Amino acid sequence: MQGKHLYEYAVIRVLPVIERGEFVNVGLILFSKRAKYIHARFLLDPRKTAFFPPDFDFEFLKANLEAFCTIAEGCKKGGTIASLDLPERFRWLTAVRSTTIQTSRPHPGFAADLDQAFDALFRELVL
């Protein structure tokens, strides 16, 4: 395992109607404590969001997904949560919640190149 980093990832999901429990995968967050790495990205694919209710607020959703990524990156504009260390930010972002934006449970993996692992997971689970 030398040269490989243990990481955790979670899929970012949108539940357009929370009560129905149906979701669309829109992003990914990947974290490695030892490598001091965290990265999040999202994509709102119109083909996947076409079935959302007609009154769904996409601007509000986009702003919240951008805030999610800002917090993951630790940007000052992300507020108090963004100032936490990497493990605390990852745990906060992947905590179970009953909102429109949720994440899957974290899953582990090993990779020599975390950016490549992120891109491969993003293609497989989001695109």
Describe the structure.
The chain is 35% helix and 26% strand. It has helices at 46-49, 58-73, 79-82, 86-93, 114-125, and strands at residues 5-14, 24-32, 37-42, 101-103, 107-111. Strands 1, 2, 3, 4 and 5 form a 5-stranded antiparallel beta sheet that branches. The radius of gyration is 15 Å and the shape is globular.
Protein traits:
globular; 5 helices; 26% strand; 35% helix; single chain; alpha+beta
Strand composition percent: 25-35%
Label the overall shape.
globular
What structural class do you assign from the helix and strand content?
A: alpha+beta
Low-confidence stretches: none
Total helical elements: 5
Q: Helix coverage percent of residues?
A: 25-40%
Distance between the termini: 29 Å
Largest sheet composition: 5 strands, antiparallel
Topology pattern, helix = H, strand = E? EEEHHHHEEH
Radius of gyration: 15 Å
Let me know the number of strands. Answer: 5
Mean pLDDT: 96
